[in-house]
Write a structure and sequence with these properties.
- With 303 residues, this protein is of the alpha+beta class.
- The chain has one domain: Clam (outer membrane lipoprotein receptor (LolB), chain A), CATH 2.50.20.
- A hairpin with a 6-residue loop joins strand 1 and strand 2.
- The two termini are 22 Å apart.
Length: 303
């Protein structure tokens, strides 16, 4: 199940006065409504408008991505092997045909001409794909609902639950996932995303039970034990008035055959740093690039 937020983080105790002020002094659009459901239409309008800016930024940056893959021992739960790789990361494509992430492995000699495109096959969507969640390209494939308000760091946020319409296959498309997104109450910027494969909560326990009862050879299961995924992404890089992906974590786990508790098998950490922007030097440059008055999507997915 997607983990739920816990409100104030421990390190915020020192700034409790500031935290209370943030919750009490949210933008005027949210000050009068009494429930998240009352606020929801206003919030959806804000994030849909903000999505146009995120889409404009999609082809305007590159950054460095570091990926650390760790596998855990079944005997003691310790990390038994870890691999670290660094890539140059950017997006290409367009709103019509969609976007895809590009990773270039730098050459050992430092010559950009000798770098090569690679695919580490992470079984999760591209990090920036989540920033496009509310664009017309993705909206028709999701159901959105109000899920409360929380303080995340020093961000007063509105929480939106989402469920994609596609059956989970390889996990590369965001519509294959269910979860929650936290957006800044004042700007509509993304703060974090937590997600799991569509139907995982219902299906993983069932498939694990089938695996437990399946044919065994010399006492060992003939099939691989079903695994689940938890994904978390933080938009903690702020540039020109927008938030960008900073840190992501994917945990692959199985359910213990006796207790049913989650047992981690692998962890993948992604870190995005050293953003470089093309022909953009200020927030005004991004705003000037927006296409005003674009047609609204046919279906916002709002319940």
């Amino acid at each position: 199940m997607v983990s739920r937020g816990r409100g104030l983080e421990p390190y915020l105790v020192r700034g409790l006065g500031i935290a209370v002020a943030l919750l009490g002094g949210a933008s005027g659009a949210f000050a009068d409504a009494s429930t998240p459901e009352d606020l929801f239409p206003v919030v959806m309008k804000m994030v849909i408008e903000r999505s146009a800016l995120y889409e404009k930024a999609a082809l305007g940056f590159s950054c460095e991505e570091t990926i650390v893959k760790g596998k855990f021992s079944a005997a003691n739960g310790e990390n038994k092997r870890e691999e670290k790789s660094r890539y140059d990361y950017l997006y290409e494509g367009g709103s019509g045909k969609g976007y895809k992430e590009i990773r270039m492995l730098p050459a050992k000699n430092g010559d950009p001409a000798d770098s090569k495109q690679v695919d580490p096959d992470l079984d999760v969507p591209g990090a920036y794909d989540w920033a496009l969640l509310f664009t017309p390209q993705h909206q028709p494939h999701f159901r959105f609902e109000a899920a409360g308000r929380e303080l995340v760091g020093f961000h007063s946020t509105f929480v939106i639950a989402f469920r994609g319409a596609r059956t989970f296959d390889r996990g590369k498309e965001i519509a294959e996932w269910t979860g929650r997104v936290w957006v800044d109450s004042d700007t509509g910027n993304f703060v974090k995303v937590e997600a799991e494969p569509n139907g995982q909560e219902e299906l993983l326990e069932l498939r694990t039970d089938e695996w437990r009862k399946a044919l065994r050879i010399l006492g060992l299961p003939a099939k691989r034990q079903p695994q689940g995924l938890h994904y978390r992404l933080q938009f903690n890089v702020d540039k020109f008035g927008l938030s960008f992906p900073g840190d992501a974590e994917t945990r692959r786990f199985v359910l213990d055959a006796v207790s049913g508790e989650e047992e981690i098998k692998a962890r993948i950490a992604q870190r995005f740093r050293n953003y470089v922007f093309f022909n953009v030097h200020s927030e005004e440059d991004f705003l000037a690039a927006q296409t005003p008055g674009g047609p609204p999507p046919a279906d916002s997915g709002v319940k």
